[in-house]
Amino acid sequence: MAAKLRLEGKVAVITGGASGIGEAAARLFAAQGANVVIADIQDTLGRSVSASISPPGSCTYIHCDVREELQVAAAVALAVDIYGRIDVMFSNAGIVGSLAGVVDLELADLDAVLAVNLRGTAAAIKHAGRAMVAAGTGGSIICTASVAAVQAGYGPAAYCVTKHAVHGLMKAAAGELGEKGVRVNCVSPFGVATPLMCGGVGMSPEDVEKVSCEAAVLKGAVLRTGDVAAAALFLASDESAFISGHNLVVDGATTVVGTSLGFALQNHLARSRSGGE
Question: Which of 5, 59, 77, 88 could disulfide-link 12, Cβ–Cβ 3.0 to 4.6 Å?
Fold first, then answer.
């Protein structure tokens, strides 16, 4: 007898689901039995990813700029209209934003990162939470935070601020929604070679992976989008039925020891300038 699929019968909305971690999660969630709504601003790519996911009809795409609350609400409403419910919200959309340090940071640039990473996550929690509470069947809300939500040195100032805020928002939401049976958690990856990461720091996927491996405590493995998607799958599934208010850090013990990705990045850039490896 075939094993039961881990998300069989569930409906998931994934913001930022057209590429990177979101795309990996959309494919994995669907493979594990979920109906998936991909919500993203990359329309051509999002429709292509949605159309490529099997079985046909198990994935739908909607344009959604998470800076616009009504668009987030529309993504949740679409899931309910098409599939009858929403069980999982994976609030994954985010940007790196300004690379400036604190003393050089333009506050308008900080506002831009906050609008996507924090306000977008707040909108996702708000509208998914409302729908889950109204249905009375509980649910799981997962927010993509970062190792930059755990300690400094893993990203520029604006990004670090917003990911710390996402972590705090998750805790507040877990406390409020728990009595309604809705779980809220974070997944916090180490450096992953996503289009967002590579574009944000101006590096190739190969270089991002090299730097991350140099900085990582755990050797012999390379963190990829599928690993983060697998962590999100666990939090989405009934396997984590009593886990809420938790930050699942996917970093191979790096933040436990305190190694800084920032130092590794600086060393890599220094070698590049000097003609080294």
Answer: 88
Compute the distance between CA of residue 39 and CA of residue 28 in angstroms, rounded to an integer. 16
How far apart CA 156 and CA 163 sit, in angstroms, is 11
Measuring CA to CA, which residue among 58, 48, 129 is closest to residue 87? 129
Give the tens place of pLDDT for each residue, 74-105: 999 999 999 999 999 999 999 999 999 999 99
Residue that the structure tokens 């007898």 belong to:
1
Contact 158, 105 (CB under 8 A): yes
Residues 203-238, buried b or exposed e (16+ Cβ, 10 A)? beeebbbbbbbbbbeeeeeebbbebbbebbbbbbbe
Q: Give pLDDT, residue 263.
A: 55
Do 186 and 246 form a contact (C-beta atoms < 8 A)? yes
Q: What are phi and psi of 187, to 5 degrees?
A: -120, 130
Cα–Cα distances in Å, from 246 out to 125, 197, 200, 210, 232? 15, 24, 27, 29, 12
Within 10 angstroms of residue 18's Cβ, the number of other Cβ atoms is 25
d(CA 221, CA 44): 33
pLDDT at 275: 46
> What is the chain's length?
277
For residues 72 and 15, is the Cβ–Cβ distance under 8 A? Answer: yes
Rounded Cα–Cα distance for residues 106 and 201 (Å) = 18
Are 236 and 92 in contact, with CB atoms under 8 Å apart? no
